[in-house]
Automatic annotation (TrEMBL), chain A:
<feature type="domain" description="4Fe-4S ferredoxin-type">
    <location>
        <begin position="305"/>
        <end position="336"/>
    </location>
</feature>
<dbReference type="InterPro" id="IPR024569">
    <property type="entry name" value="LutB_C"/>
</dbReference>
<dbReference type="GO" id="GO:0051539">
    <property type="term" value="F:4 iron, 4 sulfur cluster binding"/>
</dbReference>
<dbReference type="InterPro" id="IPR017900">
    <property type="entry name" value="4Fe4S_Fe_S_CS"/>
</dbReference>
<dbReference type="Pfam" id="PF02589">
    <property type="entry name" value="LUD_dom"/>
</dbReference>
<dbReference type="InterPro" id="IPR024185">
    <property type="entry name" value="FTHF_cligase-like_sf"/>
</dbReference>
<protein>
    <submittedName>
        <fullName>Iron-sulfur cluster-binding protein</fullName>
    </submittedName>
</protein>
<keyword id="KW-0813">Transport</keyword>
<dbReference type="GO" id="GO:0046872">
    <property type="term" value="F:metal ion binding"/>
</dbReference>
UniProtKB/TrEMBL annotation, chain B:
<dbReference type="GO" id="GO:0016491">
    <property type="term" value="F:oxidoreductase activity"/>
</dbReference>
<dbReference type="InterPro" id="IPR004017">
    <property type="entry name" value="Cys_rich_dom"/>
</dbReference>
<dbReference type="Pfam" id="PF02754">
    <property type="entry name" value="CCG"/>
</dbReference>
<feature type="domain" description="Cysteine-rich">
    <location>
        <begin position="131"/>
        <end position="215"/>
    </location>
</feature>
<protein>
    <submittedName>
        <fullName>Fe-S oxidoreductase</fullName>
    </submittedName>
</protein>
<dbReference type="GO" id="GO:0005829">
    <property type="term" value="C:cytosol"/>
</dbReference>
<feature type="domain" description="Cysteine-rich">
    <location>
        <begin position="3"/>
        <end position="83"/>
    </location>
</feature>
Length: 511, 242
């Protein structure tokens, strides 16, 4: 089920066009991302020192990833000392094999799962079913997606692309009776149904939001209580975690617990935050008898030591970049064609695969507006990484030949102002054939895409550089003396800059 | 004190009145702009598409044009933020890297220069119209130009500034994105102009001609008579009329 191919289309463009023609999807995605985005903005504002905490979060992640080998060892040793079986899986196939071996070993017939993107990445549900083990998603959104035979289209809201009428239809089939499209009724049905599943399950399977190196604990954030059930009822627990989920200490968790829920949904705190440090001890009322943690690499370590992409591992999977992204807003998650969608998915999918051939044009599906970077609680410069991806695709010799020619021509013209001026002149003359009322509506060549939604402007009759000599003369003739105070103000700025102050202006996030 | 104008290829070729408004507005403060004619394009179209060799060739004209001035000002936050990418672009060329860092430190977007350098917020303009403002992404997010245009607009006499819903959302331009992913870009710009029309403003003002060209093009396609202006044009027109 989770292995199902993304809905239609071989390229981002084709899949995006499907989404753009799906009004239900666009309305549903717009409605929820807007709610989440507004919630996040309000939560950040209420917090008061949001940017300082983002920077702190970033530093914690940078530090951990820079010393990932150390913290992973520390975590594994501590978890083992707590009685956890810790496994390392280099590839997706290996992670699947380890999971299936455990399932066979405990003779499992059914697995209840709490939400985990890493298991989506591994297509674990399909694998479990292939050996006759029923895998049931217990997060409401995941349950809906599983019923629909789809993949999640959002990191934290898997069924974001469906409205409640579509959900009521799906659940009505499951229930064998018509359920009203009322959230209470629908959630109530799923709750009753899942209760039985929790009780019969042999294995509880979870992802991991944060793994605490100093204690060997894994921490889960959730809102529905299903992860609590998954980790307390079945006899065996399997946790799958990306190798980068580590943070050093519980003190660091305080920062993450502040950043993650606020960024994800605008909540000040997640409803349930569970820290699990091992299997059930004799004095515990509940908990699994056997606990496994599978630490998955699957392309993550390829980012280590890559100055342009290492920061990708800082991601805490909050989904804020999806909610802020104006492209995601219009095309939803399935158009991205991978497990992870939105800006983070556009970068993560090709980066994890390190396979240029499969990079498709996913990195082109961005206007590079930087909303993702601004929303990111750990300040990952996704908008820059998208450009690096585009460049690497060309470096690997997989660029578009026609575009490459165009860019060569562009550079040839633009590296000389004389040539630029000549081309402008040519354009001014040539455009006379196509300009109507100062605009161009012709839908040919590169103008086709543009003019399907716009009227293109015409070149000015006289460019700025042609007008300049006259303009300059007029200004010099009528120039007024600069105010001495203003002059000394400007001189001070230049002096400050030369003394290493850098100057006040011109300093943004890149500065 | 040498202040040079980085006109940007787009305003040079398509929107010369924007440059003219800047030049004439600044002349009122005794600032004579220089226009080094060797400048062409900042190289952003090539850079963003991954063609960094071509971007370097083009960017070299900008580095050469502004090597010996004290301030560089531009009517585009996006092209100014491209200059902020130059140190990365030339990271393996020590000579060019040094020039790139110097250029970055002295480059200002138009409103940054007015407010931060000249300390001006009231240019003495009068503009009795209903106006809405689109903050362009690169200027506001990457350069951090957020307050400057608002400070300038607050002082314009007679102007009613109405907030643009979802103002911070990208207009869908994104350079080659608008051509390569034309349907996504089209959906984005259509949503943007929907919001512009909701405000019932007579004028849409902004700081980046690329975004404004995109929005204006869609407004015209939809036959909506909203006037689209760069803030420099609005301020200069307001000063002339005052």
């Amino acid at each position: 089920m989770s292995g199902a191919a993304p809905a239609g289309g071989n390229t981002v463009k084709e899949r995006a066009d499907l989404a753009l023609n799906n009004d239900f999807l666009r309305k549903a995605v717009r409605f929820t991302t807007e709610r989440l985005r507004t919630g996040k903005e309000k939560a950040a504002e209420d917090h008061g020192n949001w940017d300082e905490w983002r920077e702190r979060g970033r530093q914690i992640r940078l530090h951990t990833i820079a010393h990932l080998d150390y913290y992973l060892n520390l975590f594994a040793n501590n978890a083992r000392a707590n009685g956890v079986h810790v496994h390392f899986a280099e590839t997706a196939a290996e992670a699947v094999r380890i999971s299936l071996d455990i399932a066979k070993h405990v003779e499992a017939r059914s697995v209840v799962k709490s939400k985990s993107m890493v298991t989506e990445e591994l297509h674990l549900n399909t694998a479990l079913e292939s050996i006759g083990v029923e895998a049931i998603e217990t997060d409401l959104g995941e349950y809906i997606i599983q019923l629909a035979g789809e993949t999640p289209s959002h990191i934290i809201i898997p069924a974001i692309h469906k409205n409640r009428y579509q959900i009521a239809e799906l659940l009505s089939v499951d229930a064998g009776e018509t359920l009203a499209p009322d959230t209470q009724i629908l959630a109530g049905f799923v709750r009753r149904k899942l209760r039985e599943k929790f009780l019969e399950a042999d294995i509880g399977m979870t992802g991991c939001n944060f793994a605490i190196a100093e204690t060997g604990s894994m921490v889960l954030f959730e809102n529905e209580g299903n992860a609590r059930m998954v980790t307390t009822v079945p006899k065996t627990q399997i946790t799958l975690m990306g190798m980068e989920r580590i943070i050093p200490s519980f003190a660091d968790l305080e920062v993450m617990a502040t950043l993650l829920p606020r960024s994800a949904t605008g909540q000040k705190l997640t409803v349930y935050m569970s820290g699990i440090s091992g299997p059930r001890r004799s004095a515990d009322a509940d908990g699994p008898e056997e606990m496994h943690i599978i630490i998955v690499d699957n392309g993550r370590s390829l980012q280590l030591g890559d100055p342009e992409f290492q920061e990708l591992l800082n991601c805490i999977r909050c989904g804020a970049c999806l909610n802020a992204c104006p492209v995601y807003r219009h095309i939803g998650g399935h158009a991205y064609g991978g497990t992870y969608s939105g800006p983070i998915g556009a970068v993560l999918t090709p980066a994890l695969k390190k396979n240029v051939a499969e990079w498709d044009d996913i990195a082109n599906a961005s206007s590079l507006c930087g909303a993702c970077y601004e929303a990111c609680p750990v300040k990952i410069p996704l908008h820059e990484m998208l450009v690096y991806l585009r460049r690497r695709k060309l470096e690997a010799g997989r660029g578009d030949k026609l575009e490459a020619l165009g860019m060569k021509g562009f550079a040839k013209v633009m590296r000389s102002s004389k040539r630029f001026k000549a081309v402008l002149k040519l354009g001014q003359l040539g455009q006379k054939l196509v300009v109507r009322d100062g605009g161009i509506s012709l839908k040919v060549g590169p103008l086709k895409g543009w003019n399907t939604y716009r009227v293109a402007p015409s070149l000015a009759g006289q460019s700025f550089r042609e007008k300049w000599p006259t303009m300059e003369q007029e200004i010099r003739n009528g120039l007024k003396e600069m105010d001495p105070a203003l002059k000394s103000r400007m001189e001070a700025i230049v002096r400050d800059r030369e003394n290493g102050g850098g100057g006040k202006g011109g300093h943004g996030h890149h500065g | 004190m040498k202040v040079s104008l980085f006109i940007t290829c787009l305003s040079d070729a398509l929107f010369p009145p924007v440059g003219e408004a800047m030049v004439r507005l600044l002349a009122r403060y005794g600032v004579t702009l220089e226009f080094p004619a060797v400048q062409t394009c900042c190289g952003q179209p090539a850079f963003n598409s991954g063609y960094w060799n071509e971007a370097r060739e083009t960017a070299s004209t900008i580095l050469a044009a502004f090597e010996d001035c004290d301030f560089v000002i531009s009517p585009s936050g996006s092209c100014t933020s491209m200059i902020h990418h130059y140190p990365k672009l030339f990271e393996n060329d020590p000579v060019m890297l040094g020039k790139a860092i110097k250029l970055q430190q002295k480059s200002y977007e138009f409103t940054q220069f007015l407010v931060q350098v000249l300390g001006v917020t009231d240019v003495g303009a009068k503009f009795p119209h209903k106006v809405t403002y689109h903050p362009s992404c690169h200027g506001s997010r990457l350069l951090g130009v957020k307050e400057e245009p608002l400070l300038l607009m607050e002082q314009v006499k007679g102007m009613e500034l109405v907030p643009l819903p979802f103002a911070n959302d990208c207009c869908g331009f994104g350079g080659t994105f608008a051509v390569k992913m034309s349907d996504i870009s089209g959906a984005m710009v259509t949503e943007k102009t929907d919001h512009v029309l909701e405000t019932e403003a007579e004028v849409l003002v902004g700081l980046d001609m690329a975004c404004l060209m995109n929005i204006a093009g869609n407004l015209r396609y939809r036959n909506k008579p909203v006037r689209v202006m760069h803030l420099a044009e609005l301020l200069y027109e307001g000063v002339k009329g005052a």
